[in-house]
Amino acid sequence: MRKREMTEKEKSCSSPEKSQGGNGPFREEFEKLRAALAQCEAKLHALLQAMPDLVFVLDKDQRFVSYHTSLVPLLYPPSAFLGKRHGEVMGPELDALFQPAFEKVRRGEIVEYSYPHLMKEGRRWFAVRLSPWFVDEEFQGVIAVVRDITNERAMQEQIALQATTDAVTGLPNRVLFRDRLTQAIYRRARHPQTLAAVFYVDLDRFKILNEAVGHDEGDIILREVGAQLSALLRPEDTVARLGSDEFAVLAEGFDSLADITRMADRLHAALNKPYGTEALHLTASMGVVVIQDPITSSAQVLRDAEAALAAAKRSARGKYSFFVPTMHEEALRTLALENDLRRALEMGQLAVYYQPVVENSTRSVVGLEALVRWPHPVRGMISPSEFIPVAEEAGLVCELDLWVFEQVCWQVREWEGRSQALAQRPWWSILQMGDFSRPCATFWPARGCKPTA
Known about the structure:
Distance between the termini: 147 Å
CATH class of the largest domain: Alpha Beta
Strand order of the largest sheet: 2-1-5-4-3
Strand content: 15-25%
CATH topology of the largest domain: Alpha-Beta Plaits
Order of helices and strands: HHHEEHEEEHHEHHEEHEEEHEHEEEHHHH
């Protein structure tokens, strides 16, 4: 059968050019769509031009199909990657990061990762953000936005360094020291045949020296102390500044306690020497802790080191002491005694005893000496030689003295009420000396006592 030829009218209706020609509704709608598309393309182009990033489009087979760059130069020419798979272009190491990310993006997720890249000017860091590309809910590929984050990475590293480094000496600070100490404890658990130790150093009377010579000179001394300690250690050991005048050394790989003792001797000898531009002689006290079972945390090691340091300072400044478990027990007893003393001052549980002061030539009583005693409700009478040092260490001496003065005031008033003569002049002359001159000017009269001038 011969095919029927189309009429001119049919040809006119079926021709796209003709159907869209003239001023008909189809032509008008087509122009609107074309204008809207052009506007979208212009917006997209402006948006891409404003982005300081590289943009790549990869299809579902992981082939590079297009790219965009405005400010950032390409690492490779387009001919080196267009039409090729990601693994062919970027290499196995970067492809190992890309593959699991690509699978997540295929499921509709947005994935980010970063990687370093060695260039002529040095190593640079890049961040990648992968987003899915769907058409009618069918996965077509991924959009990869790549940004150079070298400066941000350097800033983060600098912040991290400042967070773990002492600003004055450049040494590790307490945060980094505790981290390395924790790692050393884990290593010690895996290799129990070797020993590790912490040497906790405190510069004696450094606060007084710092106030006398100024903080700039004090900083010079601290840097010299840090350098002196570092010079005695191996690269794998750690010296850190933990506080204003406190340093700590972490050393590993000792075969015996004798080796640790020799290290303590070397550190102690190196520290007791002149420092600073004025060659000021310093002494240092040191507490030593051997890391061994059952130590499980850095906090425990530092607590024991501080206890050993306190024992060294009590014995004599400029010495060192090894930690023993009884030191911790002593520290707990001291803490309990301090708490009891505070409670005793609040509750008035102390007692004042009076001892007469006798003139040798006349054998007459010329005054009284007030002595404070502590009848503890549980431990019984506690000697002043035991609780006075605790009061001094806890900063309770002034409060204790004022409490004694108040008790003396009430006692003197009671004696006066009984018409007993009491020479108050010696007391008043003593009370006007030292740090109590101002409070005592009103202390006695407020309690009904009339000291003689």
